[in-house]
Write a structure and sequence with these properties.
Elements: H1 3-19, H2 34-49, H3 60-66, E1 74-78, H4 86-89, E2 97-101, H5 109-120, E3 126-132, H6 136-143, H7 152-159, H8 163-166, H9 173-190, H10 196-201, E4 206-212, E5 219-222
Parallel strand pairs: 1-2, 1-3, 3-4
Antiparallel strand pairs: 4-5
Helix pairs in contact: 6-7
The structure holds zinc ion (ZN).
Residues 79, 81, 103-104, 132, 135-137 line the site of zinc ion.
């Protein structure tokens, strides 16, 4: 193949790739892949870390476009902690992220139902479970102690299955618990019938765990297998 042909083919591939990632929220939005979605989040977090956030999709036209429909390109299940708002941390705007926030980024029926809605009806291809450094809910679970009658106890109960194992970590048991809790929740979502488990098995969605550093603003993906904890 001549050099000119190679260049032409590369250009066509580039254009096709660009077309496959339309502006989220557009009426003509084509479903992007889970990996494309993840790349978009990673790039946004890199801008945030470098203090180069572009604050996209805040303009009035965007607001008007979204009034009739939404096509968020990712679901983020994050802790409610005021220090990690997903739209800021990933440098995204209106209509980009379907965000579910609860202290300790735990699951319950309402959380899973919200995520199912985003996956089944809005066709979001990626779910990110975002835990973070020095999480108060995880700290409460690690402290243990007598059961209290307040509703915070329900958060503690959800996180407590990872506590015993995390306490074996010689370096930083709290940080280990944060990461294990994220993996546990990823596992719960991946096994959730009838929608999330099926969609993940079919390759329509990807479910990943991530950790936010309060110090650097960086989001790190947590590799390894999801932690399955028997309840
Ligand atoms: Zn937290």
């Amino acid at each position: 193949m001549k050099l000119a042909d190679v260049k032409r083919r590369a250009l066509v591939l580039c254009l096709v790739a660009t077309m496959a990632v339309p502006a989220a929220g557009s009426e003509t939005a084509v479903r992007i892949t889970p990996d494309q979605s993840l790349s978009r989040l990673v790039a946004g977090n890199q801008r945030f870390v470098a203090h180069k956030s572009t604050h996209p999709h805040e303009e009035m036209a965007r607001r008007h476009d979204l009034a009739s429909s939404q096509h968020p390109f990712a679901v983020v299940l994050s802790c409610s902690d005021s220090r990690l708002p997903p739209e800021l941390v990933f440098d995204q705007g209106l209509g980009d992220l379907f965000v579910v926030r609860v202290a300790g980024n735990i699951t319950d029926a309402a959380v899973i139902g919200s995520i199912e809605y985003a996956v089944e009806h809005l066709k979001a291809p990626l779910i990110v479970v975002l835990g973070h450094e020095k999480c108060g809910a995880v700290t409460a679970a690690m402290s243990g102690g007598a059961e209290s009658k307040d509703h915070i106890q329900s958060l503690v109960d959800a996180i407590s299955p990872v506590v015993a194992e995390a306490k074996k970590d010689p370096k930083d048991p709290l940080d280990a618990a944060v990461r294990m809790n994220v993996r546990k929740v990823v596992g719960e979502l991946a096994q959730s019938e009838p929608i999330l488990a099926h969609e993940a098995k079919e390759g329509h969605i990807r479910i990943v765990g991530a950790y936010y550093s309060l110090d650097t603003g960086a989001v790190t993906l947590l590799g390894g297998s999801p932690v399955a904890v028997a309840h």
